[in-house]
Give the backbone structure.
Amino acid sequence: MNATITTAHKSQKSARTRALNEALRTPILVVDDVQDNRELLEELLREEGYEEIISAPSGAEALKILESRLDVGLVLLDLMMPVMDGYEVCQRISGNSTTAHIPIIVITGGAVRRDEALLKSFERGAMDFIPKPVNEVELYGRVKSALLLYHERMSNREKTRALLESKQRYELAVNGVNDGIWDLNLVSNEIYLSPQWKKNLGYDDQELPNLRGVWESLIHPDDRKEALAAIHEHWRDQTPFYSSEHRLKTKTGEFKWVFSRGRAAWDEAGKVLRMTGSTTDISQRRMLETQLRQAQQMESIGRLAAGIAHDFNNLLAAVLGHASFMRLHLTSDSALQPNLDGIEQASKRAADLCKQMLAYAGQGSYSIEELDANLLISDTVGLLKISISKKIAFNLIRSPQPALVKADVAQIQQVLMNLVLNAAEAIGEGPGSIAIRTSRIRPSASELADAILQTGEPSTEYVQIEVIDSGSGMSKETQEKIFEPFFSTKFTGRGLGLSAVLGIVKAHRGVLKITSQLGEGTTFKILLPLAEGAAVSPRPQSLSARPDELWHGSGTVLLVDDEASVRQSTGNLLAELGFNVLLAENGEQGLNTFTAHVKEIVAVILDLTMPRLSGGEVFEQIRQICPRLPVLLSSGYNEENTMEHFAGKGLAGFLHKPFSINDLSAKLRECLSTT
């Protein structure tokens, strides 16, 4: 008995030795456009005993070599190459029947996002990934495993029954890898699931029987049809390999996203005998993709919201300008005065709506000051209580420590109002409870990993504001949509809603998290950086603020704006303030007008966005002609973001649209008094 065991052990050891020796003799193709990288890999591989290393400086050269060298057993491929990148090379190799059996290991680094690179590489046929700088131990282990796999594939071509004998060697090749290995036998209809495969789903090895039906039952019902279709497509030889992303049910009943890939083996008659492959847990990658999609969606819709707000502010500038002009020509007891009051108030409310749209786009104009979140919420409680049903109990739990943040009072109040109204709708007509709780926390990276919005840094101290309700809760599908503009679980949407919350929190460099389950209520968590010695910024004046006496000037002002209504209304106000007015409808015309009247112009008002030449381009050329001439920039966009581009360039000031005659008078007085 012992002699039999010893003989078998020696035979297995001898087989492994032969396989390793054969691997060392197998040509390896290194593809990298950087010569130093190719030479480094060649040196490392030769030191390990690999005999033949072939180098290619480009993807095209690599494909040419593979056409003539049919004995190449492994490709080490850099991704970031000019003309033909690694992704295309990978796809061409795996998509060609004469080279599809060659394993590809992607080796890359630098600015490449690893999660994206992994996904794209595996989708195009790569079997493994090694980041730069290359770790020698990792390189040797993965090259060894890949070459063993290559020889297994070559053996499968010659005799598919060799799969049964190579099972132990294959398991040794992938030993230590966190992927789950599976082997589907179409003859017996059994499936081998490796212990790691089962462990990744929370099962012990003995808890899951190795039956094909058991495996299929673990696939999410919504994914099952597509996953099985991908397998059958490969069996019909329609794809060079099988790959599928789907959800598998864990022992706890939750579902985990996985990436499964493999290849089939056919007999001489073309009948599928078996298929072998591996399964990788991609839950983390999926979560990052969701966050990326959400960020891209927010950016896209944010640009639209910012553009609409900008155009609407232009219209409001004309409305408010005409109203200011009319007021100057009416007596104080005129019957039209109340109508003008209504126009100005409506314009102010419309301007506030534009601010909310800009806040969603992350371009809001804020009055930032240091404030205590405890006091802010206490001051807002009265307004919040009257906005919800009396059947709902309202609780405020304040942090015992000062909760100082740098924020815009009105915007944070808007966030609280939106969240509380959302909570009240979730509770409905019956009794329930809403609580607002403040605290100071220092979250870890793992605590921030599942945040809907994450602009902060781990280990930083934050003020946390929680809005907790006992409402109906939300499914995962609903949670993925609630921050879309106009989304509502009711029959109709109600505006920007929670999307505005997302924009405001982002603009304050905060973090937004949500916890919710159907039937168990919802908790929104807003984390704002703890303030340390913040300076208080002055609040902007209301649009309707009017001083008793207007400042008047003299001379000629050049007004350049592509909106005819803005030119007309602002021109009237400038004339009322005592100025001669020159008008231009675009940047090019504005520059020509300036050049023709340069000696008489005392100030220039430029719109930021115009055809032909933008306000910024016109400003640069005016500075070259008259460095000391006061130039005001006017826009419906956020002042802070706009002025960043002109810092230190001599811009006299910024007029935020819509503006009244008082704002215009004050700005001109300020810039002309300093010249």
About this structure: The CA atoms of residues 317 and 659 lie 6 Å apart. The first strand starts at residue 28 and ends at 31. Confidence is low (pLDDT under 50) at residues 491-496, 534-548. The chain has 22 helices and 23 strands.
